[in-house]
């Protein structure tokens, strides 16, 4: 029986065009770092260190540690110089990206209804960013971080999507079995892979990433409106 629902954030709880988000993100970051990098330099370096973070499988390192380990090997600057700038960026400037996102009433109401029915809710966003930026995006979506039992971020997670270990680490943290969980997301590769460890899956099609709509890992699929109806039909756990 499903008692726990995991949600991707960008393109799922938070409607947005991922390409627009990435473009605006690097514009804002390069503006913040203009004393040290050009737009091309910071974009290339952050992308390479992000790839390193996604690919790493060292359980002793958080994603944050993996990212900055690689990042500071690529730049001729000390962490003491750049870390405070990164922190201020995610605290303040990151919010300038909000304009490229929207809110979806169906998802907001679905979350409220799931809470009322007693489901455990998790934000299972790909942990490429600091917790502050995840909290900002939850707020942009019209939701509260208190709605969720567990929220992934690069400070606390050791793996990234689409690694199965990412989902296993969440289950370990929330002390749940995969058979009691459903993963809801808009990325066919990164989100639906949760099926491979025994979770149910629901593909949100409004901002879908990928083209393999017959993928065996998809249990359910539909629009935001369809998902809201799906939630309405779920049993109450209270």
Summary of the model, kept short:
Keywords: Hydrolase. The chain is of the alpha/beta class and 238 residues long. It has helices at residues 18-32, 39-55, 63-74, 79-91, 105-117, 131-140, 164-174, 224-232, and strands spanning 4-7, 120-123, 150-151, 181-185, 200-204, 220-222.
Low-confidence stretches: none
- CATH superfamily of the largest domain, by name, is HAD superfamily/HAD-like
CATH architecture annotation of the largest domain: 3-Layer(aba) Sandwich
Order of secondary-structure elements: EHHHHHEHEHEEEH
Radius of gyration: 18 Å
Annotation keywords:
238 residues; 6 strands; 2 domains; 42% helix; alpha/beta; six-stranded parallel beta sheet; Rossmann fold; Haloacid dehalogenase domain protein hydrolase; hydrolase activity; HAD_sf
Task: Present the secondary structure layout.
Layout: E1 4-7, H1 18-32, H2 39-55, H3 63-74, H4 79-91, H5 105-117, E2 120-123, H6 131-140, E3 150-151, H7 164-174, E4 181-185, E5 200-204, E6 220-222, H8 224-232
Parallel strand pairs: 1-2, 1-4, 2-3, 4-5, 5-6
Helix pairs in contact: 1-2, 2-3, 5-8
Describe this structure in words.
InterPro entries: HAD-like_sf, HAD-SF_hydro_IA, HAD_2, HAD_sf, S-2-haloacid_dehalogenase. This is Haloacid dehalogenase domain protein hydrolase. It comes from Alkaliphilus oremlandii (strain OhILAs) (Clostridium oremlandii (strain OhILAs)). This protein is of the alpha/beta class and 238 residues long. It folds into two domains: 4-16 and 102-232, Rossmann fold; 19-98. The protein contains eight helices and six strands. It has a six-stranded parallel beta sheet with strand order 3-2-1-4-5-6, sandwiched between helices. Helix 1 (18-32) crosses helix 2 and helix 2 packs across helix 3. The protein is globular and about 55 Å long.
